[in-house]
């Protein structure tokens, strides 16, 4: 089977780099997205997301005529679905959030109209266990004239597999090529064809399994990281209570040959680690006790940091009785969801800064070397340089260990250092 034309549905943080990688390796790629701005940007050879090295490859692929972006799917030999799988908003506080598969269903509906015998459909979106089978059922419902693996196994017209993306934001271009891939076909033939497709550019191993295991593998990776970060975050709270430096403690414990504790921080952000464990918890609430607790520990960390800021403000006012809260400036260092990126979405640092801006009557400085302007929705936060913040602020809250902050250690009385870089 040779795949000449490949279609990628959803041109976001995963879909666009994946699409362009196929194009860079000689395939004709049709990218599909529902957003006209995304389509126009890509067709100009530009990108709408921030990812190192991606712009040049997209520019070349579009100029070479290997990649085009369109609003509605066109016929192709293989379809990769890389749409969001968010959580539905919980009705009551404390409810277990449930995954929302509506974008997968919409993508299935959209490609169904152009699907033909011998096509391969791959679900790349991080998904709860069973989602690939569900997607196959939707396709079968929309195209009763075609046969699918559930009823026709290896003889089906359409092959279907789940192949979760596992690339790290900020290193996507390299990791797409180098990482191993888990490929879970609905049948062995589905896995084999999907492997053939990914081998176009993947230098890592393509390891095959079934779709449910592939789904669970991806959720397991991110849940494992979430649980490990929760352990570090819980340690930081315990150590604070016991007057122990958690950073020193972790570096000592990590000298043990079989211990590797991760780093505490202001909470867990991003679009994956804080979301994916819920896909497991919502499916098996009785069994997933540890994974559920880790989510709660990590989600509670921003509140703990905010309490620390309140205490620091009150200590400052006690030491400076001539001042009122209005006179106290709080500088928040780092707004992105992790170091050395400019992505503010799902960022605990941003959430904390916004919350302080709401409850504190004095000035709030946001220091974020990776962005030039603050988004409009951020009220009462002034974007300032490191220099101004260190000179003018009274309370210094370290939230993200960007390289600029590691280089410029500050020595002030009122420091809350959630990343342990200004000891
Ligand atoms: N964090 C800590 N302490 C640590 C490490 C991370 O607090 O020691 C925080 C970060 O500051 C950030 C959050 O965790 O707020 C998540 O950052 P991350 O670097 O752990 O992960 P992501 O969300 O950028 O990417 C993850 C990766 N998964 C794993 O490393 C298992 C990536 O490989 C996945 O492809 C990606 O999720 C995804 O798309 O699912």
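^ Assign residues to that structure.
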């Amino acid at each position: 089977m040779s795949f000449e034309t490949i279609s990628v549905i959803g041109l976001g943080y995963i879909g666009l780099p994946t699409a362009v990688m196929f194009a860079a390796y000689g395939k004709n790629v049709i990218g599909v997205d529902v957003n006209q701005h995304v389509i126009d940007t890509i067709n100009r050879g530009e990108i709408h997301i921030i990812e190192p090295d991606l712009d040049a490859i997209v520019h070349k692929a579009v100029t070479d005529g290997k990649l085009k972006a369109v609003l509605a799917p066109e016929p192709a030999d293989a379809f990769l679905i890389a749409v969001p799988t968010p959580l539905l908003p919980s009705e009551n506080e404390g409810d277990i959030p449930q995954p929302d598969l509506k974008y997968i269903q919409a993508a299935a509906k959209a490609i169904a109209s152009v699907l033909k015998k011998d096509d391969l459909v791959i679900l790349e979106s991080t998904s709860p266990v069973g989602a690939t089978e569900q997607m196959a059922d939707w396709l079968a419902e929309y195209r009763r004239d075609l046969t699918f693996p559930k009823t026709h196994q290896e003889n089906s017209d359409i092959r279907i597999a789940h192949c979760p993306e596992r690339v790290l934001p900020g290193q996507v271009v390299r990791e797409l090529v180098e990482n191993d891939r888990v490929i879970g076909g609905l049948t062995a033939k589905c896995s084999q064809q999907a492997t053939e497709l990914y081998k176009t550019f993947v230098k890592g191993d393509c390891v095959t399994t079934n779709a449910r295991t592939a789904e669970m593998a991806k959720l397991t990776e991110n849940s494992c990281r979430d649980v490990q970060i929760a352990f570090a975050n819980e340690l930081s709270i315990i150590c604070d209570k016991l007057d122990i430096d958690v950073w020193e403690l972790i570096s000592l414990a990590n000298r043990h040959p079989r211990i590797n504790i991760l780093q505490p921080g202001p909470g867990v952000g991003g679009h994956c680690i804080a979301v994916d464990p819920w896909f497991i918890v919502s499916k098996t609430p009785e069994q997933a006790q540890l994974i559920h607790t880790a989510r709660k520990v990590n989600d509670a960390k921003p509140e703990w940091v905010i309490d620390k800021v309140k205490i620091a403000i009150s200590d400052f006012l006690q030491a400076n009785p001539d001042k009122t809260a209005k006179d106290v400036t709080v500088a928040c260092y780092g707004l992105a969801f992790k170091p050395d990126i400019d992505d503010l979405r799902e960022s605990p640092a941003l959430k904390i800064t916004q919350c302080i801006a709401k409850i504190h009557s004095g000035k709030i400085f946001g220091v974020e070397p990776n962005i030039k302007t603050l988004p409009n929705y951020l009220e009462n936060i002034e974007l300032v340089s490191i220099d101004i913040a260190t000179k003018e602020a009274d309370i210094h809250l370290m939230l993200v260990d960007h390289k600029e902050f590691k280089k410029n250690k500050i020595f002030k009385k009122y420091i809350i250092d959630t990343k342990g870089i200004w000891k």
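The chain is about 40% helix and 15% strand.
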